From TrEMBL:
GO CC annotation: plasma membrane
Native source species: Nyctereutes procyonoides (Raccoon dog)
Record's function text: Putative odorant or sperm cell receptor.
Pfam name, any one: 7tm_4
Membrane protein topology class: Multi-pass membrane protein
Protein name as annotated: Olfactory receptor
PANTHER family on file: G-PROTEIN COUPLED RECEPTORS FAMILY 1 PROFILE DOMAIN-CONTAINING PROTEIN, OLFACTORY RECEPTOR 56B1-RELATED
A biological-process GO annotation: cellular response to lipid
Length: 315
């Protein structure tokens, strides 16, 4: 058996939809439409929050972090997807693949951490509204953002170096049009148990811990809301959490599905792996702006107001 150590920089081959290669240009139109929605939606949220002074509040600062993270995920995955579906260029350099993998996982981990801080934000806003802005000051929010970035980088940084210690055989075809850690280590023909254990530990101490703390935050929110006498005020308090709950479900359900399929779905059809991979990375950036624009009154009002002003100028 011929071995290719990572130092030889043997390129990987990206995959689209096996058997549908002739339809890739048509499929690319769908992907471009999704990416356009994701990019425009998240940019609009960032611009509206930046321009409108009334939206300079903790909830909207965290929302802008989420939008920036979604833009990062789109930026990390779009180049290889376009080179495959538009130009039929399948090869990706080994180091380029590791770099893409690093940024995809860093942004995904940051997204999970931001969703946790947004759950804490909702708890503080409901349980202690009078001290809301004094607890979550701009300085505190900045420190939280920097902390989430450092956590993500520190946790994901060992991944590329652990992969470089592996050897790779002739198999070099990835399951997606981008690079993910589980997908790369599957191609190794040397012992990659350390990499698998590392990946599992990362999931447990980051995504697992974040999801438990998010659930705990909402239990505290429910307990707090039960103490509110007015049913109308209870509904109003819970309604402020709807968009965040949707965002959590949009991130964690696909992530859970991808993790389960990669680790236990050996007999699952390859097409399921491929579709779940795209759902995992595309659905949150596409739908998060839609959810927040529809369910968050401050964002919705400002966007509609600006659209009406624009219409009046045109007419």
């Amino acid at each position: 058996m011929v071995f290719f150590n990572s130092s030889t920089y043997r390129p990987f081959l990206l995959s689209g939809f096996p058997g549908l290669e002739d339809s890739h240009p048509v499929i690319s139109i769908l992907f471009c439409a999704l990416y356009l929605v994701a990019l425009m939606g998240n940019i609009i949220i960032l611009v509206v929050i930046r321009v409108e002074q009334s939206l300079h509040a903790p909830m909207y600062f965290f929302l802008s972090m989420l939008a920036a993270t979604d833009l990062g995920i789109c930026t990390a995955t779009l180049p290889t997807l376009l080179q495959l579906f538009w130009f039929n260029v399948c090869e990706i350099d080994f180091d380029a693949c590791l770099t893409q993998m690093f940024f995809i996982h860093v942004f995904s981990l940051m997204e999970s951490g931001i969703l946790l801080t947004m759950a804490f934000d909702r708890y503080v806003a409901i349980s202690n509204p009078l001290r809301y802005t004094t607890i979550l000051t701009e300085s505190t929010i900045t420190k939280i953002g920097v902390g989430l970035l450092l956590r993500a980088v520190a946790v994901i940084l060992p991944g590329p170096f652990l992969i470089k210690r592996l050897s790779f055989c002739k198999a070099n075809v990835l399951s997606h049009s981008y690079c993910l850690h589980p997908d790369i280590i599957k191609l190794s023909c040397s012992d990659h148990r350390i990499n698998s254990i590392y990946g599992l530990i990362i999931i447990l101490i980051t995504f697992g811990a974040d999801s438990v703390l998010i659930l705990f935050s909402y239990l505290k929110i429910l307990i707090t809301v039960q103490g509110i006498a007015s049913k109308e005020e209870q509904f109003k308090a819970l309604n402020t959490c709807v968009s965040h709950i949707c965002a959590v479900l949009l991130v964690y359900i696909p992530m859970l599905g991808v993790s389960i399929i990669h680790r236990f779905g050996k007999h699952v059809p390859p097409m399921v792996h491929i579709i779940m991979g795209y759902v995992y990375l595309l659905i949150p950036p596409v739908l998060n702006p839609v959810v927040y624009c529809v369910k968050t009154q401050g964002i919705r009002t400002r966007i509609l107001g600006n659209l009406l002003k624009l219409q009046q100028r045109v007419l």
